[in-house]
Write a structure and sequence with these properties.
The C terminus is likely disordered. The chain folds into 4 domains: about 50 residues; about 140 residues, no CATH class; about 180 residues; about 180 residues, Methane Monooxygenase Hydroxylase, Chain G, domain 1, CATH 1.20.58.1970. The chain has 27 helices and no strands. α24 packs across α26. The protein is an all-alpha fold.
Length: about 750
């Protein structure tokens, strides 16, 4: 590496000399001059690098460095001395600092104790004032109680539990005294205004305004002695009633007389207490809501608003209090309901109707607890689901054969030619009824349980339809199968519409959240590019069920079309064996008549298409006739055109049969039915070409066989003679069926 470096260095020196001095290096005097100059420069550099030279750059730098080092050493030594002195001073004042800290701690303790005692004295002072005014001045009592609660709010973050507990006990002590006092006043006023309004002609009794004014004053007092949240204690209650927040005191006292009447009539041995008649007490609750809500809202809500208690809606609280009574009653009846299916189902229906009435008539908010909290308990909702399944199964038994002979009759109200059958409409109504019952449940998990039941019923109904299809014997076109397909298609459309509804979209979201397995890919539901059959592009909760229904519908439609094709094939045997090569051109094209042997085939085809059009829904029929047309096109091409030789007369007669009889038969279903008979139509074009054109076309197609790119003009030539579907080799096969081009030996 050193050797290479030396060579490189020498090379750079030579290059620099050549660039700087050039040809001057060839002059000896000039070279000596350059040498002397460089020696002087080297000597100057050596002087600057000489450490012993005090005037040199390096010498000056070293001297300055030594000076700096000495100064730094002096500073470090002085700092050590200062640190030592500071440590000595700190040790001397440590004792003083400890004494001062102890003094301040004692001072703080004394101040806290003093403040603590002041708070206790303040609480005691308020209590003494309350003791004096409790039977004298109600308004002052309320103000003093408010002062107690204000102290409680100020001590919310205070860590002294003893003081807080003492204050809480004091607040509860006076709250109970004042509550009892004002409650008595409130009850006396309620008697004066004849509350509750249970008389049949209560609307004719107008309470005196002075009584209403007293009621509002006492209500204001009751609202002001509510226990603040920071001092309130958790209420010990059942899990069921934990959904219900405590009522404000005025509403609580308004509810009590109604609750007493309710207990009197609907508990114990009274005749009105009947487990099988839940509508009696639910109707009574609704009646009380109807009769009292306006009074409560008109006379109590202004008091609440005046106090700035914006979170209280007295109408909703009043309804919630009565709903809680209904919940307690239904819950107490549960042990007697569990073992009687009819009574249980009746109670569920009545509870759902009660909840619906509250929501729709009285605008009871969805975020408030309802009677449904009873129905959504684990053991109750399981029973509910079991009963839904039981009754749904019984209804499905009743809506299908043999119990319902008219199950597949179309509805008379079906004005849109949907051909909705009686059983399909009844089944969808059954599912819709189940949805209406459970869609009000607040918990997604509960709604998903009912959705699973609906999916199970959908699958059960599909299996029942499949069993009916398999049980059909004989002529399937005249059987119930077309009506069954209509039923399937109607259910498909309903499920697609339901899948886009907000209710089912939210269930689809929750279902994806709850399930740990991947959801199946959405099935492809379209049948044709012009979409005669319903389709969907998004996943829904019904995706898997839809795929099964669609598969069954397609299978049955294919069976119908194949049944027609089978009959047509059988009826066309003589027509296929017609002497197409011996027919002569005896008449003009317009004067020709249908080949006699084709009559049975066309008669069957016409009859079956008419039957299918009459029995199938329009879009389903479109699927079937197109399938029939495409299969018939392939059949006639493969087993008639390619299996026979054609004379000019035979080709003309075949063209007449196709264009003047077969195509018009489908013209009533489509504007361009020839699009579904491309093979037969193009065969007619090739078979009826003039002989010269046909020979030239055939020879050209054979000559260009194997050509590619620009040279391959075969497709263009075929398009010129009206052939767009056939490949060149197929076109040659058709041309070979002409008697005037080749004979059988040539073809072989």
């Amino acid at each position: 590496m050193n050797y290479e470096f030396d060579i490189e260095l020498k090379r750079n020196v030579i290059t620099n000399l050549n660039e700087e001095f050039g040809k001057s290096l060839l002059d000896l005097d000039k070279c000596l001059e350059i040498r002397d100059k460089l020696l002087e420069e080297r000597e100057e550099v050596e002087k600057q690098l000489d450490i012993s030279n005090a005037d040199s750059l390096i010498g000056v730098s070293l001297k300055d460095g030594e000076t700096f080092i000495q100064n730094a050493t002096d500073v470090i030594n002085r700092s050590k001395e200062v640190i030592s002195q500071i440590e000595l001073d700190l040790n001397e004042i440590q004792g003083v600092r400890s004494d001062v800290t102890t003094f301040f701690h004692k001072l703080n303790t004394l101040q806290s104790t003093l403040q603590y005692m002041k708070v206790i004295l303040h609480i005691d002072s308020i209590s003494q004032e309350l003791q004096k005014e409790v039977h004298k001045d109600d308004e002052k009592c309320v103000t003093l109680f408010a002062n107690l609660t204000e102290v409680s709010r100020n001590l919310e973050n205070f860590c002294g539990n003893n003081l807080r507990n003492y204050l809480k006990d004091t607040i509860y002590f006076w709250h109970n005294i004042l509550k009892e006092k004002f409650s008595k006043d409130f009850d006396e006023i309620l008697k004066l205004i004849k509350w509750p309004f249970v008389s049949a002609n209560f609307s004719f009794v107008v309470p005196l305004q002075s009584h209403i004014h007293k009621l509002q004053i006492v209500s204001e007092y009751l609202l002001q002695i509510e226990i603040p949240s920071e001092s309130s204690e958790p209420v010990v209650t059942t899990a069921l009633l934990s959904y219900f927040l405590p009522l404000c005191l005025p509403i609580h006292l308004l509810i009590q007389p109604l609750k007493k009447r309710f207990i009197y009539h609907f508990y114990g041995a009274r005749q009105t207490n009947r487990v099988d008649k839940p509508e009696w007490y639910l109707t009574q609750i609704l009646t009380w809501i109807r009769d009292h809500k306006d009074f409560v809202e008109k006379n109590i809500q202004p008091v609440v608003d005046r106090l700035g208690l914006l979170h209280i809606d007295v109408r909703i609280e009043f309804i919630r209090g009565l709903v809680q009574i209904a919940v307690e009653k239904l819950y107490s009846d549960l042990p007697n309901l569990q073992f009687d299916d009819f009574t249980f189902s009746h109670s569920v229906d009545e509870a759902l109707g009660f909840d619906k009435e509250l929501r729709e008539t009285y605008d009871y908010p969805a975020n408030q607890p309802s009677i449904l909290v009873v129905l959504t308990q684990a053991q109750v909702i399981d029973k509910w689901l079991a009963m839904e399944k039981k009754y749904a199964t019984e209804k499905m038994d009743a809506m299908l054969p043999p119990n319902a002979p008219d199950a597949f009759d179309p509805l008379t109200s079906d004005v849109e030619d949907l051909k909705i059958t009686t059983c399909a409409d009844a089944f969808i109504t059954l599912l819709q009824t189940i949805t209406e019952r459970y869609e009000v449940l607040s918990q997604p998990g509960h709604r998903l349980q009912f959705l699973d039941l609906q999916l199970e019923l959908l699958d059960d109904f599909r299996v029942r339809l499949l069993q009916l299809v398999n049980a059909e014997k004989g002529d399937i076109i005249e059987s119930k199968i077309p009506s069954i397909v209509n039923s399937i298609y109607y259910i498909e459309n309903v499920l697609i519409d339901w899948g886009a509804m907000l209710h089912y979209l939210s269930l689809y979201y929750y279902k994806n959240q709850f399930e740990t397995v991947n959801q199946p890919t959405s099935p492809i539901l379209s049948d044709f590019d012009d979409t005669p059959i319903c389709d969907t592009e998004t996943d829904t909760v019904f995706a898997e069920t839809l795929s099964l229904y669609i598969h069954m519908r397609k299978d049955n439609l294919n069976n119908l079309s194949e049944s027609v094709i089978t009959e047509v094939k059988f009826a066309s045997r003589d027509y296929r064996r017609e002497s197409w090569s011996r027919m002569k051109v005896e008449k003009e094209f317009r004067s020709l008549s249908l080949t006699q042997t084709a009559c049975p085939m066309f008669e069957i085809l016409s009859k079956r298409l008419h039957q299918l059009q009459k029995s199938l829904q329009s879009k389903l029929f479109t699927f079937v006739w197109r399938s029939i047309a495409e299969q018939l096109d392939t059949y006639l091409f493969e087993y008639l055109v390619l299996d026979n030789r054609f004379s000019a007369g035979g080709a003309l007669q075949f063209k007449f049969d196709v264009t003047r009889n077969l195509i018009p038969l489908f013209l009533q279903f489509s504007e361009r039915p020839q699009n579904y008979f491309t093979q037969v139509m193009e065969s007619c074009n090739l078979l009826n070409l003039k002989k010269g054109s046909a020979l030239l076309l055939r020879e050209t197609l054979l000559a260009l066989e194997g050509a590619t790119g620009v040279e391959d003009t075969r497709n263009k030539m075929l398009k010129d003679v009206g052939v767009n579907y056939f490949e060149p080799n197929i076109a040659v096969k058709v041309l070979n069926q002409r008697d005037d081009i080749t004979n059988r030996l040539d073809i072989d």
